[in-house]
Amino acid sequence: MKQNRCKIIGITGGIASGKSTVSDILRKKGYTVIDADDISRKVTDIGESAYEKIHEYFGDDILRKDLSIDRKKLGSIIFGDEEKRKKLNEMVHPEVYKKMIQEIRINAQRDEIIFLDIPLLIEEIENSKKYGIEYDEIWLVFVSEKEQRERLMMRDKISSEEAEKRIKSQMSMDFKRKYATRLIDNQYGKEHLTKIVEKLVKSL
């Protein structure tokens, strides 16, 4: 996909590291942020092709009373089973990339920079290339593992053991650092984080 008109910057990080906060800061400054999680929710809505595949594979247990997918239940299944997690990704990710590329093409008509908020950006970097997305930069948001675990426990109201399981299911932060163009330390509060993001944006 031709990206001559704008820069594509990927934002990623470990679970509960503050990646979404960085995206919110950028949105408030008027930048376009395409969120893979938002798209993932849309492509798994009732009636969408990914919904049918997920329902068929995982069964009725992952559905709410209104028949929508209970993402929390589904998450508790896949974080404990690598094979099922891989299967879910195979169902959802192609649909997410298709929608993402559509949004890039629409926004590239007017924007000089587009940010892509993708939790598994580095894990899926080869798939990104396969679908035609090339990153000019990758911004990696991180906190200490202790901070990450505490934030995750508070956010999702889960035990320390469950939080640890979810963190360990992802690629290590040390490995991710090798792919990052910029590192964003999010251990000192939102005000500090905002200053870092402002500085990075000015450098583009």
UniProtKB/TrEMBL annotation:
<dbReference type="InterPro" id="IPR001977">
    <property type="entry name" value="Depp_CoAkinase"/>
</dbReference>
<dbReference type="GO" id="GO:0004140">
    <property type="term" value="F:dephospho-CoA kinase activity"/>
</dbReference>
<keyword id="KW-0173">Coenzyme A biosynthesis</keyword>
<feature type="binding site">
    <location>
        <begin position="16"/>
        <end position="21"/>
    </location>
    <ligand>
        <name>ATP</name>
    </ligand>
</feature>
<dbReference type="GO" id="GO:0015937">
    <property type="term" value="P:coenzyme A biosynthetic process"/>
</dbReference>
<comment type="pathway">
    <text>Cofactor biosynthesis; coenzyme A biosynthesis; CoA from (R)-pantothenate: step 5/5.</text>
</comment>
<keyword id="KW-0067">ATP-binding</keyword>
<protein>
    <recommendedName>
        <fullName>Dephospho-CoA kinase</fullName>
        <ecNumber>2.7.1.24</ecNumber>
    </recommendedName>
</protein>
<dbReference type="InterPro" id="IPR027417">
    <property type="entry name" value="P-loop_NTPase"/>
</dbReference>
<keyword id="KW-0418">Kinase</keyword>
<keyword id="KW-0808">Transferase</keyword>
<dbReference type="GO" id="GO:0005524">
    <property type="term" value="F:ATP binding"/>
</dbReference>
<keyword id="KW-0963">Cytoplasm</keyword>
<dbReference type="Pfam" id="PF01121">
    <property type="entry name" value="CoaE"/>
</dbReference>
<comment type="similarity">
    <text>Belongs to the CoaE family.</text>
</comment>
<comment type="function">
    <text>Catalyzes the phosphorylation of the 3'-hydroxyl group of dephosphocoenzyme A to form coenzyme A.</text>
</comment>
<dbReference type="GO" id="GO:0005737">
    <property type="term" value="C:cytoplasm"/>
</dbReference>
<keyword id="KW-0547">Nucleotide-binding</keyword>
